[in-house]
Design goal:
With 497 residues, the protein is an alpha/beta fold. It has two domains: 295 residues, FAD/NAD(P)-binding domain (3-Layer(bba) Sandwich); 194 residues, FAD/NAD(P)-binding domain (3-Layer(bba) Sandwich). Helix 5 links the parallel strand 9 and strand 10. Helix 1 packs parallel to helix 11 and helix 6 packs antiparallel against helix 7.
Length: 497
């Protein structure tokens, strides 16, 4: 039996970095609006509370990955998960956001009624086992785009034969002891390059097994300029200046990679050679087949991965897996890798909008048939917003701009007496392309279930911060592709028809 609960102006789904940020902008810019954050798990923090594998850290600097409204004060610019989690929970606690979070509230589905101009949301309470229902004027989905309860592991021939332990980083056992053991980490993405130097401190040996190389770039874990500015300037001013510097640097690297990929490839290769042992086969293990930023660059703070390789505590093997064996992995080349523990750092499973089902006036919403409007709404779906950050820069830069635009959108609706806001395609046959122009495997595997994007604004899923500043922060809320109506006007139109 479903128990009816209260009505809320805005329901935010997810208490991670995006949800906490959305709550801040709502209560700051619209103090009269009621809101609640629904969190399926029992803790806040999203990704940073979920992953527990050794060495977990950001791969973006916290001066841009952090919120624009809350300075990052730690000396570490590339920060570990515990520091990021403290930052997020401090933000939620000091501003009163924490009291709005409803833990163990898993959203199963939401049904929109145009006649009532509201969503009815079905929620499963994991702590009590009951199902409750809430209504809301708006849904704001801040749950990111991957599944929290399940990582991706491809099928490996002979997996059941392996006598050791197989672990996915998303489900890292707290009691896993790697001391003195032979560990093989399958993968070469951000998770793998984080794990390997952390494991190499105690393991007997760690091998990174990759099918093909990834671009890996060493960065300083501390931003000297940021730390210096913080000593001589007020914290908020130092933070703003550092943030601008780092945004400009990120943009410069990305644009240069797009315009001059061969030059950037050579520069990264030269940096890698300086970090690796003399005579190391850099082209075999660190020379990808794709151009820089076709996939996200992997950064390693203070060159920790390269230091582990230099010490001989870790090694890289580039080959394909033929089969697991009782004692490890046999490769297609015939080489055998002995292992006590195999870590499958093989990626994520994409899950849009927390896995919830949507319907509009009784019709199920097929996300694959929808097109993203301004990177924050879906064609034909009223009063529904979502937050997906940048794939070529710090995630939170985009989320902040989306939240600013969202609060302006609500203000416009108040001023005009509108209850309903619905993006509509100018032409059902409008050309579209995949939602994310990104080569990561987890994205490619899921494009068929994702919404799409158009070829130009406002239907473009922009990955350009400066363009988004103009569009989302400075641009008008009204748009020819955005319909604003009220319940009264809708009812009158229905009667006239």
């Amino acid at each position: 039996m479903t128990r009816q609960s209260e009505h809320i102006d805005v329901l935010i789904i997810g208490a991670g970095i995006s949800g906490i940020g959305a709550a801040h902008y709502l209560q700051t810019e619209r103090p009269g609006s009621s809101y609640a954050i629904l969190e399926a798990r029992g803790v806040s923090g999203g990704t940073w509370a979920l992953f527990r594998y050794p060495g977990i850290r950001s791969d973006s600097d916290l001066h841009t990955f952090g919120y624009a409204f809350k300075p990052w004060r730690n000396d570490k610019s590339i920060a570990t998960a515990d520091l990021i989690l403290d930052y997020l929970r401090e933000t939620a606690g000091e501003s009163g956001i924490e009291q709005h979070i409803r833990y163990h509230h898993k959203v199963r589905g939401a049904a929109w009624s145009t006649a009532e101009a509201r969503w009815t949301v079905e929620i499963e309470r994991a702590d009590t086992g009951e199902t409750v229902s809430m209504t809301a004027n708006w849904l704001f989905c801040a749950g990111g785009y991957y599944r929290y309860d399940e990582g991706f592991t491809p099928r490996f021939e002979g997996r059941e034969r392996f006598a050791g332990q197989i672990v996915h980083p998303q489900h890292w056992p707290e009691d896993l002891d790697c001391a003195g053991k032979k560990v093989v980490v399958i993968g070469s993405g951000a998770t793998a390059v984080t794990l390997i130097p952390a494991l190499a401190d105690t393991a007997g040996h760690v091998t990174m097994l990759q099918r093909s190389p990834t671009y890996i770039l060493p960065v300083a874990s501390e931003d000297v300029i940021a730390n210096t500015l913080r000593k001589v300037l007020p914290a908020s001013l130092a933070y703003r200046l550092t943030r601008r510097k780092n945004i400009a640097m990120q943009r410069f690297i990305w644009r240069t990679s797009q315009r001059h990929p061969r030059i950037v490839r050579r520069l990264i290769r030269a940096v890698n050679i300086r970090q690796l042992p003399a005579g190391y086969p850099v082209d075999e293990h660190f020379n990808p087949s794709y151009d820089p930023w076709d996939q996200r660059l992997c950064t390693v703070p203070d060159a920790d991965l390269f230091k582990a390789l230099k010490k001989g505590a870790a090694s890289v093997v580039t080959d394909r897996i033929a089969t697991f064996t009782e004692t490890g992995i046999r490769l297609e080349s015939g080489r055998e890798l002995d292992a006590d523990i195999i870590v499958t750092a093989t990626g994520l499973n994409v899950q849009l909008f927390g896995g919830m089902a949507l319907s509009v006036d009784g019709e199920p919403v097929d996300f694959a048939d929808k097109v993203a409007f301004k990177g924050m709404m879906l064609s034909g779906v009223p009063n529904f917003a979502f937050a997906i950050g940048y794939t070529n820069s710090s995630w939170t830069l985009k989320v902040g701009l989306l939240c600013e635009h969202f609060t302006r959108l609500l203000g416009h609706m108040d001023a005009t007496g509108a209850d309903i806001c619905r993006p509509e395609l100018p032409d059902p046959a409008m050309p579209t392309r995949p939602l994310l122009d990104f080569g990561a495997g987890y994205v490619k595997r899921s494009l068929h279930v994702m919404p799409r994007q158009g070829l130009a604004y406002p239907w473009l899923m922009s990955m350009n911060y400066h363009s988004d500043v103009k569009l989302l922060r400075g641009g008008p809320v009204e748009d020819d592709n955005l319909q604003f109506t009220s319940v009264a006007r809708h009812a009158k139109a229905q009667t006239s028809a």
